[in-house]
Amino acid sequence: MKRALFIFASLSTLLLAVSGLHAEEIASVNTNFRFTGSDRVSVEAYDDPGVTGITCYVSRARTGGVKGTLGIAEDPTEASIACRQVAPIKIDAPLKQKSDVFSERMSFIFKTLHVVRIVDAKRNTLVYLTYSDRITTGSAKNSVTAVPMPSGTTIPVK
């Protein structure tokens, strides 16, 4: 039984790693020491796949311990986001008014972190919202940031 659980946890960790290939961990800090692996807050960079030149930095809590090491722990719901222009902006195709641009599991099955891009056409600004949801309920905990377009750049909207 323990071997089957270990194999299951290893496969789930591999699947989570493959689904999160677009995230790059910039750094983390330990928040709660454990002998089997500390809890931490990590900062990850996500490049917007639809808008070249914008990177979103998401900080979120990660659960340590044995379950955290195996990838089966449920991470806390809290997350914060800051998106910035890091290079010249290039938008290849019209953007949907609202689209889920990143998502990553925060627990084995039940919880997912989302980053949604919202086009504020009136202000020529891209707004990014982060929140988490569960299979049965969402979370009111969220964070928002905005990136105004440079002069001369208009956001094409579908």
Automatic annotation (TrEMBL):
GO terms for cellular component: cytosol. Pfam families: CreA (PF05981). The keyword Signal applies. Residues 1-23 form the signal peptide. Keywords: Signal. PANTHER family: PROTEIN CREA (PTHR37952:SF2), PTHR37952. This is CREA signal peptide protein. It comes from Caballeronia mineralivorans PML1(12). The lineage of its organism: Bacteria, Pseudomonadati, Pseudomonadota, Betaproteobacteria, Burkholderiales.
